[in-house]
Amino acid sequence: MEFLNAITAQEALEQIRSFPLHQSRSSAIETGKALGRVLAADVKAAENIPPFSRSLVDGYAVVAKDTYGAKETSPAFLSLIGQVAVGEDATLSLHEGQTIYLATGAMIPAGTEAVVMQEYTRVTSDAVEVTKALRKGENIVFAGEDIQRETVVLTKGTRLGPFDLGVLSALGVTKVEVFDKPRVGLISSGNEIVDIETASPPPGTVRDINRYAITGLLEQTGCDVTFLGIARDTLDDISEKLKKAEEFDLILVSGGSSKGQADFITDCIERLGGKILFHGINIRPGKPTIFGSLWSKPIFGLPGHPVSCSMVVIRFVAQLVKDMAGQRAEITPPLRGVLSTNVPSSYGVEEYVRVRVENSDQGLAVSPLFGKSSVVSSLSKAHGYVVVAEGREGLEQGEWLEVNLFG
Fold it and tell me: CA nearest 49: which of 154, 165, 149, 155?
């Protein structure tokens, strides 16, 4: 395959997401440890939530028609027959002309049609005056109104957030079936790469930025990432590191994807019996991206420059990881803002421009952070990125556009 016979970003995504994946494994884990995990089966409610009708306010249980016409100057007079505290069984029954005091969250007594807030009552020696008319159901949450028994409350493919754990807890679900996390084997490559613990990198070398950026991005997406070491620019060393990755679900090699005399990733994949599916995406940054198959596992050769590498992980690798994790497509409303300055671009290339988003008098102001693909600080300063489509020669100041947020 000729190097950089580049395909479009859409074509790349289609090839990546059509890769034949092994069926995801799953296991049952404790609900308290399930944050960020992906459900492997629907969760049905085994009971109603709430399990009994409850008062939403501190106030008085009433029969609704007893309050019709009630107002400050002409209150309804009701006889107080008792009270129900939170956590108590409501053994009293309510009839016309009567009222019962209820604390917020208390069980609703039989016969109750509404609860009048305490602020709209006056208590006398022998009665409770109600100064507001109520409709049936006011200030009551009924049994099963939140969740009804036998309904699906969380669907397969849901990535569990804090509030999902709250729903599971309300239902008494102590364990959930979740997909196992995709296992990613990560290799850094390049004679110039040294470990971050190197106090004074020798001239011509750089610390391994991509290892930590990639690991953070993918663990945030829901993976287990194992670093397999730094490979030097030889066929033998890269091949040996790749052999260590055979047990993983996804293989990533950072660096060595450009076509230079020291770039051996494509040769090593083919040497080990793999296949290159494409080499080059018509994007900036990140054009020299490799995608292939090795031991029936997907493998990426990522650009070495930190911004290029990170943008390819965000835009392409993360999509495959979510598929591997069994996560269904998320529907996230786009963040829209006004561009603060012109953004030049080249026609025929999809470009990713890092941006900051800040409040302004016109709404959200989107400010580009211009910088070369090796300027890693631009990622730290950016809130997200905007896409300049292939068919555009740039973006214009004042233009409304969508911002893809990092994290």
Answer: 149
Of 184-198, 286-300, 321-335, which range is least confident? 321-335
Q: How far apart are CA 143 and CA 55, in angstroms?
A: 11
Could you tell me which of 200, 173, 205 has the C-alpha nearest to residue 190?
A: 205
Question: All domains of the chain, ordered by start, with CATH?
Answer: 9-24+180-324 (3.40.980.10), 26-49+145-179 (3.90.105.10), 54-141 (2.170.190.11), 335-405 (2.40.340.10)
Angle of CA points 191, 194, 197, to nearest 5°:
170
Residue 7 pairs with which residues in a beta bridge? Answer: 281
What angle is formed at CA 269 by the lines to CA 267 and CA 275, rounded to 5 degrees?
105
State whether the Cα torsion 137-143-146-149 is positive or negative: negative
Q: In the predicted model, what is the mean pLDDT of residues 65-79?
A: 96
- Quote the radius of gyration of the chain (alpha carbons, Å): 30
The helix (run of H) or strand (run of E) holding residue 276 is: strand 275-279
Q: Is 313 helix (H, G, I), strand (E, B) or coil?
A: helix
| Confidence grade of residue 229 (pLDDT, cut at 50, 70, 90) | very high
Q: Which two tokens stand for residue 179?
A: 């997909």
> Taking residues 136-164, what's their average pLDDT?
96
pLDDT digits (tens, 9 = 90+) for 2-28: 555 799 999 999 999 999 998 889 999
Tokens of residue 325, six digits: 């994790």
Per-residue pLDDT reduced to its tens digit, 245-280: 999 999 999 997 666 644 689 999 999 999 999 999
d(CA 4, CA 22): 29
379, 352 Cβ separation under 8 angstroms: no
Rounded CA separation 82/143 (Å): 22
